[in-house]
Amino acid sequence: MINDTIAAISTPPGWGGIGIVRISGKDAFSVIERVFKPVKPYNLEDIKTQTVKYGHIVDTNNNETIDEVLVSYFKEPHTYTRENIVEINCHGGALIVKRILELVVFSGARIAEPGEFTKRAFLNGRIDLSQAEAVIDIINSKTNAARKTSLNQLEGRLSQKIKKIRNVFVESIADIEAAIDYPEYDIEEVSRNKLLERMKLSLENVDKLVKTFFEGKIIREGIDIAIIGKPNVGKSSLLNALTQKEKAIITEVPGTTRDIIEEYIEIGGVAVRILDTAGLRETKDIVERIGIDRTKSAIEKADLILLVLDGSEPINSNDLKIFEIVKDKKVILLINKSDLEIKLNINEINQDFIQKRIIEVSAKEELGLDKIEETIKDMFLRKEFEIDNQLIITNLRHKQVIKEVKKEIEEIIDSINGDTPIDIISVSIVEAADKLGEITGETVGEDVLHTIFSKFCIGK
Ligand code: GDP
Fold first, then answer.
1. In the 8-state DSSP scheme, what is residue 54?
2. I need a surface site. Which of 155, 263, 280, 388 has the fewest CB within 10 A?
3. Which residues have any ligand 1 atom within 6 Å of their CB?
4. Which residue, 33, 79, 30, is CA-closest to 55?
């Protein structure tokens, strides 16, 4: 049971039209009573949940009126934290809000840690851990796609899938225990077969999850790359070399007149979508005709441009035109065909580009690909791309857990097929169930909780 009452400023720091101080805990109502003088007095016992009262915040030490406010009351258990909650809507000057918080703390509340309201919602069983993580992700999401994914998670879709898999483990453990407790019924063999079936089914379900993680969330939040350059510099060869080296995933995007094939690759652990710059794979004359518009929109959309030059030729006016088009974008300059004699004079490259990253590569000999990987990974880690890192981190925590569970199930299947005694197998199943519980928070350690909630902003 949580005994203390917490308070925080829930609106962003600085000046605004209104400011909100939020209080949560069993003493929330008595705390507000000490500082709030309603215009129409009332009894706390009579107050209904979700009511708003008008009045003033008064410092009772010297009877000074601090601000004119609206106070909202939310009665447990149907609140964000499942505790009594009070929200004070005051004028949004930073000093006023701070002063009110001080008074509230003086009257018996404690300053909340970042994310503590949401942590209480989790500890009091209103949401599970993956839903709490979704709350941070929604607050931090910068794109609509990211917000939508997080919203799904908040609604518990991931948790439902996890719970279903976990239930199978729990049932299996119960069966094994029955077999151990009543050996005279000789149910050992039956349960071994049944167990094998169940574990195989779980493996399938876990596999599906692993796949959706990669194809769904990370990908939608990965970076978009466009490979640009005049004809014949080696763009398609480079794409081929990259997709062969890396794990490529092709997904079809239906609903267009001609299904677009999108290709995703993981470069240095970063999910990358190669934008279709029209004609990477098409014949050259088609490129001339339809390529331009699509290439332009790809350039606009791209988080990063791989600008390919042919190192075996001097720079010409076409290259210079392309420099002009991409000059405001993040660019890695690739000097291709480095296996041939280099005739490109680097000094002819626009000064702006000399500042950018330049890598010599050979698509043909697969030279320099590692350098590309390292550079992208480095840019990603330095947060040079405006994407939702938070979502990826949350997602990575889940993905890691799922992968470990998968490995564990595979081992369990091996032990069932071998002659490992069933009570020992049972221990492994318990471990796998505990592991899965880390996603929903049923079995998670205090350290993981701390890391997750400390990423919240104060007041949420
Ligand atoms: P794109 O028009 O930019 O897509 O260029 P392609 O990938 O079709 O390559 C054009 C030509 O350059 C082809 O004949 C390739 O074999 C050749 N090529 C591409 N990369 C290299 C490379 O690194 N070294 C050499 N020697 N030839 C290359």
1. E
2. 155
3. 229, 231-237, 280, 336-337, 339-340, 362-364
4. 33
At 183, list the tokens. 């050996």
Q: How far is residue 451's CA from residue 82's CA, in Å, rounded to a whole number? A: 23
Across the 460 residues of the chain, what is the mean pLDDT of every consecutive 10-residue run?
Answer: 89 84 96 96 89 95 95 95 96 90 95 91 90 78 61 75 89 82 64 90 88 51 80 86 62 38 63 63 44 69 89 88 84 94 82 77 94 85 63 66 92 93 90 90 80 77
Nearest atom (ligand 1) to Cα of 338: 23
Spacing, Cα 154 to ligand 1 middle (Å): 48
Among 3.50.50.60, 3.40.50.300, 3.40.50.720, 3.30.230.80, what is the CATH number of 219-380?
Answer: 3.40.50.300
Lookup result for tokens 């379900």: 205
CATH topology of domain 134-212+392-453: Four Helix Bundle (Hemerythrin (Met), subunit A) (1.20.120)
**Spatial distance between the Cα atoms of 307 and 295, rounded to a whole number of angstroms:** 12
| Dist CA 424 CA 444 (whole Å) | 23
Q: How far is the CA of 284 from the centre of ligand 1 (A)?
A: 13
Nearest 5°: CA angle at 394, between 392 and 400?
95
Q: For ligand 1, pick from 227, 237, 238, 371 the residue to mutate: most ligand atoms within 8 Å of CB.
A: 237
* Amino acid at residue number 110: R
The crossing angle, in degrees rounded to 10, of helices 94-106 and 28-35 is 120
Q: What are the boundaries of each domain within the chain?
A: 6-112, 134-212+392-453, 219-380
Asked if residue 266 lies in contact with residue 260, where contact means CB atoms within 8 angstroms, the answer is no
Q: How far apart are CA 271 and CA 376, in angstroms?
A: 10
* Four-way CATH pick for 6-112: 3.40.640.10, 2.40.50.140, 3.30.1360.120, 3.30.1540.20: 3.30.1360.120
Nearest CA-CA partner of 135 in 120, 147, 144: 147
